[in-house]
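Can't paste images in this forum, so I'm doing it all in text. The chain is below; anyone willing to post the predicted structure tokens underneath?
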Amino acid sequence: MDCIVLAGGRPGPGEPLWAETKGAPKALIDLAGRPMIRWVLDALQGSRHLDRLIVVGLDRPLEPAGDVEYLPDQGSLVGNLYAGIGRVRADRPAAYCWSDIPLITAGMLDRFIENTPDPELDVNAGLVPKAALQQRYPGADDLWLRLAEGQFIAADFGLFHPRHAARLRPHVDALAPQRKQAFRQALYVGLPVLVRFVLGRLTMAGLERHLERRFGLRCHVRIAEDPELGLDVDGPGALAICRQALASRVRGA
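Text version of the structure:
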């Protein structure tokens, strides 16, 4: 299975991680002596199901030689995503992964893939419960999505099928700037979704039905088995948690 690794993004002055990056890509932040994306690539390369990695968003390869394909930053999240989609095999499911979830392991990725009921769906997405994430990593915080089943954040690893990517591009363009704004995303999907979301009555199954009606998108949304899939380094708090966890992992190796 191919996997697109989204590695674009450079924090600007005044943004939470500017002090760490000073204009460099976020994916290259040092964690326990290695670039953050290196931890992610190790997990992906160790998976039993992922055999081809396409990293989009870095100006140069992490290593001078290797079996990872690199594409330069296209200037936007959607541009990077579609550059990667243009390189995956179009006749089979593929995976997507953000470069800022450094605590993932190959076992976690294999567990997600193997527990996916139907990989042929257009999208297979995971949600990480707030309680599970904060139980394992006290102090972890994010912009939580409130559904009838509880509070969640989206997992930054999942599966998709590229067959409808071109048709869905206008919707992806509209939704991408609102990636961290659940209210605006619900409004875009439709008023019934917004009402249920505001009232806390929107279920995962209901969200799937609305996505199919609104976009013709066959998807499955489920609780991810491992909270590390949703612990992304978006600010100093998450960065400190990941640094501590990886330093402990290195000492215990």
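The first helix runs from residue 18 to 21. The CA atoms of residues 83 and 199 lie 38 Å apart.
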